[in-house]
Amino acid sequence: MLDPATEAKRLAVSRDENLPDIDWVTPPEGAVTSLFRAPSGELATVSLGDPAHPRVVLVAGATGSKEDFHFIMPVLAEAGYYVQSYDLAGQFESHAAGPWNLSPPQPHYTLELFVDDMVAFLSAGSTPVHLLGYSFAGVVAEAAVVAHPELVSSLTLLGTPPDPGQSFAGVSRIGAISRFASPGVAATLMRWGVVSNVLHVKPGRLAFVRDRFQLTRRDSHRDIMDIMMHAPDFEQALAAATLPKAVAVGEHDLWPLGRHRRFAQAIGASISVYRTGHSPCEDAPYELSGDLLALFAKAEGR
Fold first, then answer.
1. Which residues contact 86 (CB under 8 A, 6 or more apart)?
2. How far from each other are the two terminal CA atoms of the chain, in whole angstroms?
């Protein structure tokens, strides 16, 4: 007979292997959508659960959105958490947020802009929160934790670039030519890959991500690519942070597993590997949710 933890993992994997093709536009049952006034403008948000419960904030990166956590949010809410997510400035339904709203106005989306928005969002509710940053949003989350460690009780970096500097240099297959590509070219290639369904996602998901590009601002996407080409080095600061940290990644991620393992070890984080690509939140949400709950329990001393 399997022990409870092993059985729970087996059931999670089984559920992940049989995920339905859904209407990604429709939020999970009981979720509340709203707008949050951040320094860069109004950010589209979704919340699920009891606001009196411990808070979890999940943030997607470039070309992503709050909908990427559709399957995860109900699991965490049912486990007793208040779960929130928002679209980064310029992305999907936060397309009206941008550097022109700052005082004084700025010409580009910058890491500082995204960090200030995140810090404002975290500070607007109960803290500390369990924070997950997905891909580029992981870089934003790293910066937020380093600047305001009091706001975060656990940090999960999901498919986050593991290398500072030109973070695309370590990407499988295209890393060698990445230094010759401009941010605009990198954004265009990424957009083409998604729209062309290079990853062979299900029809419902493909329709959603194609429609999402109708709102996502090209300048926001381009500026994020530029930030990732000059990624700051937070390794020492993260290693010194005492909060529980986790690296979560698909075995077929953009960056080789060896680089993620090196990064996790350097910052003192655990690492979980899923049988997916760059998007475990979409392709292995139940297994990922179980690992998140274990991290939260560790942070809460349970």
1. 36, 43, 44, 45, 46, 59, 66, 94, 121
2. 25
13, exposed or middle or buried, with CB in 10 Å at 0-12, 13-18, 19+? middle
| C-alpha to C-alpha distance for 296 and 241, rounded to whole angstroms | 16
Over the stretch 78-123, which tens digit does the pLDDT of each residue have? 999 999 999 999 999 999 999 999 999 999 999 999 999 999 999 9
Kindly write down the DSSP assignment for every residue of 17-46, as one continuous string. Answer: HTPPP--TTSPPTT-EEEEEEETTEEEEEE
| Whether 30 contacts 48, CB under 8 Å | yes
Report pTM. Answer: 0.93
3-state SS, residue 277 = coil
Say how many CA atoms lie within 13 Å of 126 toward its Cβ: 12
Q: Residues with Cβ < 8 Å from 150, sequence gap 6 or more?
A: 127, 128
User: Tokens 């679209």 label which residue?
Assistant: 87
Contact by Cβ (8 Å): 39, 113? yes
* SS3 category, 232: coil
Return the structure tokens found at 161. Answer: 């670039």
Query: pLDDT (tens digit, 9 = 90+) per residue, 238-277?
Result: 999 999 999 999 999 988 999 999 999 999 999 999 999 8
Kindly state the tokens that stand for 7: 């059985």
Beta bridge partners of residue 156, listed in sequence order: 132, 246
